[in-house]
Write a structure and sequence with these properties.
By secondary structure, this protein is of the alpha+beta class. 22% of the residues lie in helices and 18% in strands. It has a two-stranded parallel ribbon. Strands 2-3 form a two-stranded antiparallel ribbon.
Protein backbone atom coordinates (compact mmCIF):
# COMPACT_ATOMS: atom_id res chain seq x y z
CA UNK A 1 0.00 0.00 0.00
CA UNK A 2 1.41 3.39 -0.97
CA UNK A 3 0.85 5.85 1.86
CA UNK A 4 2.25 8.75 -0.17
CA UNK A 5 -0.62 9.86 -2.44
CA UNK A 6 1.05 13.23 -3.06
CA UNK A 7 4.55 11.83 -3.57
CA UNK A 8 6.08 13.44 -0.47
CA UNK A 9 8.96 11.59 1.18
CA UNK A 10 9.13 13.11 4.61
CA UNK A 11 7.49 13.96 7.92
CA UNK A 12 7.75 16.95 10.22
CA UNK A 13 6.95 16.44 13.90
CA UNK A 14 5.88 19.51 15.90
CA UNK A 15 7.34 19.73 19.40
CA UNK A 16 9.20 16.46 18.85
CA UNK A 17 10.89 16.79 22.23
CA UNK A 18 7.51 16.13 23.89
CA UNK A 19 6.43 13.18 21.72
CA UNK A 20 6.02 10.18 24.01
CA UNK A 21 6.52 12.20 27.19
CA UNK A 22 3.94 12.78 29.91
CA UNK A 23 4.86 13.66 33.47
CA UNK A 24 7.41 11.04 34.64
CA UNK A 25 6.89 8.82 31.58
CA UNK A 26 9.52 9.29 28.86
CA UNK A 27 9.13 7.15 25.74
CA UNK A 28 10.55 9.83 23.42
CA UNK A 29 13.61 7.94 22.22
CA UNK A 30 11.64 4.75 21.57
CA UNK A 31 8.99 6.65 19.61
CA UNK A 32 11.70 8.30 17.48
CA UNK A 33 13.34 4.94 16.74
CA UNK A 34 10.01 3.33 15.78
CA UNK A 35 8.97 6.30 13.64
CA UNK A 36 12.25 6.29 11.71
CA UNK A 37 12.12 2.51 11.26
CA UNK A 38 8.58 2.72 9.84
CA UNK A 39 9.59 5.55 7.53
CA UNK A 40 12.65 3.64 6.30
CA UNK A 41 10.48 0.56 5.57
CA UNK A 42 7.96 2.64 3.60
CA UNK A 43 10.40 4.94 1.83
CA UNK A 44 14.13 4.35 2.52
CA UNK A 45 15.20 7.85 1.45
CA UNK A 46 12.54 9.72 3.42
CA UNK A 47 13.35 12.70 5.62
CA UNK A 48 12.33 13.18 9.25
CA UNK A 49 12.39 16.69 10.70
CA UNK A 50 11.61 17.27 14.37
CA UNK A 51 10.95 20.68 15.94
CA UNK A 52 12.65 20.98 19.32
CA UNK A 53 12.10 23.83 21.74
CA UNK A 54 14.95 22.97 24.11
CA UNK A 55 18.54 21.76 24.19
CA UNK A 56 18.21 18.72 21.94
CA UNK A 57 21.67 17.23 22.55
CA UNK A 58 20.38 14.46 24.84
CA UNK A 59 17.80 13.45 22.21
CA UNK A 60 20.28 13.45 19.32
CA UNK A 61 22.33 10.48 20.47
CA UNK A 62 22.72 9.23 16.92
CA UNK A 63 20.54 6.14 17.35
CA UNK A 64 17.08 7.38 16.34
CA UNK A 65 18.09 7.46 12.70
CA UNK A 66 19.55 3.98 12.70
CA UNK A 67 16.84 2.18 14.67
Amino acid sequence: MDLRPDGLDGWRVDVANMTGRHKAQDLNHGVAVQMRRAMREQSPGSLLIGEHCHDYTQDARGTAGTG
